[in-house]
Amino acid sequence: MSDVQKIYISYNNIHKLCQKIANEILERNERPDIIIGISGGGLIPARIIRTFLKQQGQKNIPIQAIGLSLYEDMGLEDGVEKIGKEVIRTQWLDFGALSEHFDSLIGKKILIVDEVDDTRTTLHYAISELQKEVKEQQVKLNRLDEETAFSIFVLHNKDKPKRAELPKDLMESGHYLVGETVPDEWLCYPWEADDIEEHTRLAKLQGND
Ligand code: 5GP
């Protein structure tokens, strides 16, 4: 018998977490200019939070998807074989669409969205690469004095030691936004459920509705 605890999360629960974080963002007057969803788990929360960030008379916030996958690889660390985790890009920003409709990422408020911060490897990779991307554009366009503001939103942060860090200024300035901090258990999201009725029933039983 497996002793892995499972936490079931319903669509309603996800909807409400997105609404809560959107309200916090709007209260701080920090509506993003663009949302970047990490595919696949970040895409549904990205779309939902956009709804709650919409304000009358304002255009919908554009969403771009980036695809990142985590692979385990064996490597040597101090002569000892260890399993490491490597992030592979499967999809990246659409610069054509960005420059056509949106100028560039320089000077913008950018909200990165994913479903779960587990070891933090994926989020670390995403923000480092996006920051690098912006810096390169700034150098190319000679716009070095403009400030680009990154925020991160995850539905769940697992309370556990992390393998990677996020920028200190982002963490300390309240730009790491968490729907809910959860224990280090396996989270079952509704988009993975074979039987959504049973999944939702279990989520309700656990109070995640
Ligand atoms: P990381 O370890 O880089 O923070 O997370 C990598 C990815 O592993 C997440 O984006 C997510 O797709 C997957 N993952 C980690 N923990 C869970 C979990 O509890 N449930 C599900 N469904 N996916 C998870």
TrEMBL record:
It comes from the Eukaryota. One of its GO terms (molecular function) is xanthine phosphoribosyltransferase activity. GO terms for biological process: GMP salvage; hypoxanthine metabolic process; IMP salvage; XMP salvage. Keywords: Glycosyltransferase, Transferase. Residues 11-139 form the Phosphoribosyltransferase domain. The keyword Glycosyltransferase applies. Signal peptide: none annotated. The keyword 4Fe-4S does not apply. GO terms for cellular component: cytoplasm. Gene3D superfamilies: 3.40.50.2020. This is Phosphoribosyltransferase domain-containing protein. It comes from Kazachstania africana (strain ATCC 22294 / BCRC 22015 / CBS 2517 / CECT 1963 / NBRC 1671 / NRRL Y-8276).
